[in-house]
Design brief:
By secondary structure, the chain is an alpha+beta fold. The protein contains 3 helices and 6 strands; from the N terminus they run αββααββββ. The protein has a single domain, classed as Nuclear Transport Factor 2, Chain: A (Roll). The chain has a 6-stranded mixed beta sheet. Strand 5 and strand 6 form a beta hairpin. The longest helix has 20 residues.
Length: 168
């Protein structure tokens, strides 16, 4: 019988410091900053120079991908818009229970490819956020992050996000 994973526990062993650090950055720190709309909590997790973010718009065809975030400022603006919208819905009682728990439960980050000072990270979302009206909000997408070690720590250099999450 397989054991169920605890979404709040870093899945990487203590001796794998790089993967543990990347997970900490992209799961708990990212989720906590988002639910509190606190960009300052994650601002130092990005490399502003040459940052590039692409959106897959949940489409499987790369022809439909766009250069949605040509700068970190452009991404920060959209991130804050989404986080503030989420916070307003949360404050209005739109969610049943704590949606932070639902985001953690839906998030999987178990694949990190490291080559020297660069890493390719696959973060997947697959779950539901329960709403107070009995419905739910589906979370089903993935993001590919390019991270680089800068100043002794891992940071996000760019990403391709809002990709469809197609299960095997």
């Amino acid at each position: 019988m397989a054991t169920e994973r605890d979404p709040f526990v870093n899945p990487f062993p203590a001796e794998d410091a790089d993967r543990r650090a990347i997970w900490q950055m992209l799961v708990p720190r990212d989720i906590d900053a988002f639910v509190s709309a606190d960009w300052g909590a994650v601002a130092d997790d990005f490399i502003a120079a040459n940052f590039t973010g692409m959106s897959g718009h949940f489409q499987p065809d790369p022809q439909k991908f766009t250069l949605a975030f040509p700068t970190l400022d452009a991404y920060r603006t959209e991130w804050l818009r989404q986080a503030q919208e989420f916070g307003a819905a949360r404050a209005a009682g739109a969610f049943a229970g704590d949606p932070r728990d639902g985001i953690f439960a839906a998030t999987r980050l178990e694949e990190i490819e490291i080559d020297g000072e660069a890493a390719l990270v696959r973060k997947k979302f697959d779950g539901h956020l329960a709403k107070s009206d009995g419905s739910s909000e589906r979370m089903n997408w993935q993001t590919l992050y390019v991270c680089r070690r800068e100043g002794g720590r891992w940071k996000i250099a760019g990403f391709v996000g809002y990709l469809p999450h197609i299960q095997d």
